[in-house]
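Design a sequence for this backbone.
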C-alpha cells in the first residue's frame, strides 16, 4: 500500500519526463521533494523506477518534513478505512468525506489507491472493505467465537481423519481460511490461514451457497472459471451439488480446484441459524476418495454441528 500511495503522489506531480537518471525537483503538499528517477521501457512505454524522496538542502529540515508528510498520507488512509464499521459496511465518497472531514480531492485520491490495492472494493457508487483487509485480519480472527470454539474441533477432526482440516468464512466471491490444522502425514494439503479460494471450486464454497442465496449469486456473477477439467462451470451442475449439501449435510468434491486434491466440507451455523462458516478437510485424491467420503462425511458434518451448538445454534432452527 505504501508503494501505491507513493506512486499516486508521483503521478500527481505531473512533471515532464526527464532523461534517464535525471533528478527532478518539485513540491507536493507544501513539501519540497527531489526525485531521482530511472526510466526503462515497459510494454513500449516509459516506466518510472526507483523514486527517492530527498531534498536540495539537507540542513533545512526538509527530510523530516517529507517523513512527516508520508506518515500523514498513511494516517489519512487509515482514517478512510476506519469509516467502515459493522453498522456502516458500505459508504459513498460523500459519506467518507463527511466522516473524516478531509478535502474532497484527498478523499477521492486515497479511495482510488485503496481500491487499486484491494483494501477497498467498489460496487457502483458504494465502497466496502476489500478482500485484502480480510486476508490481513484472518489471523487475528482467532479471538472470535467461531475460532475460539472451532479451533479444538478442527484439531480433533485432523486427528480422526488424518487429513488437513480448516474453517472457512465467506468474503464476496471467495472463501478465506481462518483456522487450519495440518495433517501429520508426509503427503498433505498444505492449507494456511489467510488463504483465499473461489466459492465454486471445492467443497467448502458450495456449503455457503447451499445456505446463503447471496453466496450463490456472488459466485455466478463472478463467473464459474475452470481451474481443472473437473471444476463445475455449468449452473445446473453447481445447483446439483448445492442440493446435495442440503440433503446430506455435507459435500465431497474431487479435483475441482487442483488436480490430485479432493475435499469434503460441512456447514457451521450461528445462534440464529445463519451460515457462519464451513469446516472442511482436504487431501490427496488417493486418500479422500468417494468411498472414503461416505464415512468421513458424517464425521465432518457432526463436527460442524458441534461448533454450531457452541455458537448457540439449536438443531431444530430453520436454515
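Sequence:
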Amino acid at each position: 500500500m505504501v508503494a501505491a500511495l507513493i506512486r499516486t503522489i508521483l503521478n500527481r506531480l505531473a512533471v515532464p519526463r526527464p532523461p534517464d537518471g535525471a533528478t527532478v525537483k518539485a513540491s507536493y503538499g507544501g513539501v519540497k521533494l527531489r526525485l531521482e528517477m530511472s526510466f526503462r521501457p515497459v510494454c513500449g512505454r516509459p516506466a518510472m523506477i526507483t523514486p527517492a524522496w530527498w531534498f536540495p538542502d539537507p540542513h533545512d529540515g526538509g527530510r523530516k518534513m517529507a517523513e512527516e508528510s508520508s506518515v500523514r498520507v498513511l494516517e489519512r488512509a487509515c482514517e478512510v478505512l476506519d469509516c467502515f464499521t459493522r453498522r456502516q459496511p458500505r459508504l459513498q465518497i460523500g459519506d467518507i468525506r463527511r466522516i473524516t472531514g478531509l478535502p474532497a480531492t484527498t478523499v477521492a485520491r486515497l479511495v482510488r489507491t485503496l481500491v487499486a490495492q484491494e483494501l477497498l472494493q467498489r460496487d457502483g457508487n458504494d465502497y466496502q472493505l476489500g478482500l485484502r483487509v480480510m486476508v490481513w485480519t484472518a489471523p487475528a480472527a482467532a479471538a472470535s467465537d467461531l475460532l475460539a470454539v472451532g479451533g479444538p474441533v478442527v484439531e480433533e477432526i485432523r486427528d480422526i481423519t488424518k487429513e488437513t482440516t480448516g474453517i472457512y468464512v465467506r468474503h464476496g466471491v471467495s472463501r478465506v481460511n481462518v483456522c487450519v490444522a495440518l495433517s501429520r502425514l508426509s503427503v498433505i494439503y498444505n492449507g494456511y490461514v489467510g488463504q483465499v479460494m473461489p466459492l465454486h471450486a471445492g467443497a467448502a464454497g458450495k456449503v455457503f451457497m447451499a445456505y446463503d442465496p447471496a453466496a450463490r449469486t456472488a459466485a455466478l456473477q463472478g463467473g464459474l472459471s475452470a481451474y481443472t477439467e473437473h471444476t463445475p462451470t455449468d449452473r445446473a451442475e453447481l445447483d446439483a451439488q448445492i442440493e446435495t449439501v442440503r440433503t446430506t449435510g455435507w459435500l465431497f468434491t474431487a479435483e475441482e480446484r487442483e488436480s490430485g486434491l479432493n475435499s469434503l466440507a460441512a456447514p457451521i451455523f450461528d445462534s440464529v441459524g445463519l451460515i457462519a462458516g464451513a469446516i472442511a478437510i482436504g487431501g490427496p485424491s488417493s486418500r479422500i476418495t468417494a468411498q472414503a467420503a461416505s464415512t468421513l462425511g458424517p464425521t465432518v458434518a457432526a463436527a460442524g454441528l458441534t461448533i454450531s451448538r457452541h455458537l448457540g445454534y439449536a438443531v431444530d432452527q430453520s436454515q
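The radius of gyration is 24 Å.
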